[in-house]
């Protein structure tokens, strides 16, 4: 029994990332370490693509993801480019991710505890987002939902889009600490990986995301809470079936 316990909690591997994810992760670490300062402009996209030895398309996907996460913002025009945002609350989120990951790996806490806290935090997050969201927040949320509508359930981008959607709702709340915790806890629990993700579940989830965005767009906190509770209740039912069968 003791030997099985040790084997279960030992973590010696690391997820192998795709090129876009590698670029994204390296840029994120460079920003969070302070090597790239708040307000600093990144090198031109052509130069970054050369440095990472990836295509411009791959690089732009990584930059778009970091923009959605709130680490970068883009200024259009001949004198524009990609700039680093203030990252204080993202730094907090990184610390939370590392701490929760280690506690889960060591068995000090379990998955359901983390998932439950994340779900409780998402309700006030969506209420605040309905009150404080910007037009830029709305545009980014609608873009994510549009991508989800065209993606199949087998598409490897689905978990990342789901994480970006929930993280952006929390960012739109205007509360940086809340945004840090929701993003970190969602990153660690990755609910899509635990779903019985049939095409019907995928379509229902996207419809629920659209209802959340509609409530945020209408600046209706009550409708936002109703939509997120419906969504989280639906996920819990399908999560429970999937987890219990494994």
Task: Give a brief outline of the structure.
By secondary structure, the chain is mainly α. It contains eleven helices and two strands. Strands 1-2 form a two-stranded antiparallel ribbon.
- The number of distinct β-strands equals 2
Mean model confidence by pLDDT = 82
Helix content: 55-70%
Unreliable runs: 240-246
What is the chain-wise order of helices and strands? HHHHEEHHHHHHH
The biggest sheet, with number of strands, parallel, antiparallel or mixed sense and barrel status, is: 2 strands, antiparallel
> What order do the strands of the largest sheet run in, or round the barrel if closed?
1-2
How would the global form be characterised? Answer: globular
Task: Please characterize this protein's 3D structure.
- By secondary structure, the chain is mainly alpha-helical.
- Helix content is 70%, strand content 3%.
- The chain contains eleven helices and two strands; from the N terminus they run H-H-H-H-E-E-H-H-H-H-H-H-H.
- The protein has a two-stranded antiparallel ribbon.
- Strand 1 (72-75) and strand 2 (81-84) form a beta hairpin.
- The chain is globular.
Please describe the structure with a list of short key phrases separated by commas or semicolons:
246 residues; mainly alpha; two-stranded antiparallel ribbon; 11 helices; globular
Provide the fold topology.
Layout: H1 2-9, H2 19-32, H3 45-52, H4 56-68, E1 72-75, E2 81-84, H5 88-105, H6 111-132, H7 135-150, H8 158-172, H9 176-189, H10 199-217, H11 221-244
Antiparallel strand pairs: 1-2
């Amino acid at each position: 029994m003791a030997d099985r316990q040790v084997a279960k909690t030992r973590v010696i591997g690391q997820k192998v990332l795709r090129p876009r994810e590698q670029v994204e992760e390296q840029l994120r670490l460079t920003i969070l370490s302070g090597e790239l300062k708040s307000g600093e402009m990144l090198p031109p996209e052509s130069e970054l693509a050369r440095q990472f030895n990836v295509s411009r398309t791959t690089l732009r996907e990584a930059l778009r993801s970091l923009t959605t996460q709130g680490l970068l913002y883009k200024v259009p025009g001949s004198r524009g480019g990609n700039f680093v945002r203030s990252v204080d609350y993202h730094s907090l989120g990184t610390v939370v991710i590392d701490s929760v990951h280690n506690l889960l790996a060591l068995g000090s806490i379990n998955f359901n505890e983390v998932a439950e806290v994340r779900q409780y935090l998402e309700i006030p997050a969506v209420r605040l987002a309905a009150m404080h969201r910007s037009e830029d927040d709305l545009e980014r949320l609608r873009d994510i939902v549009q991508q989800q509508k065209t993606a199949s359930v087998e598409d490897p981008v689905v978990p990342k889009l789901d994480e970006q959607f929930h993280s952006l709702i929390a960012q739109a709340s205007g509360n940086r600490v809340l945004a840090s915790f929701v993003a970190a806890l969602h990153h660690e629990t990755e609910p899509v990986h635990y779903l019985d993700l049939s095409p019907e579940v995928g379509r229902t989830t996207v419809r629920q995301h659209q209802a959340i965005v509609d409530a945020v767009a209408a600046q209706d906190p009550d409708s936002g809470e109703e939509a997120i509770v419906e969504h989280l209740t639906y996920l819990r039912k399908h999560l429970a079936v999937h987890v219990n069968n494994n």
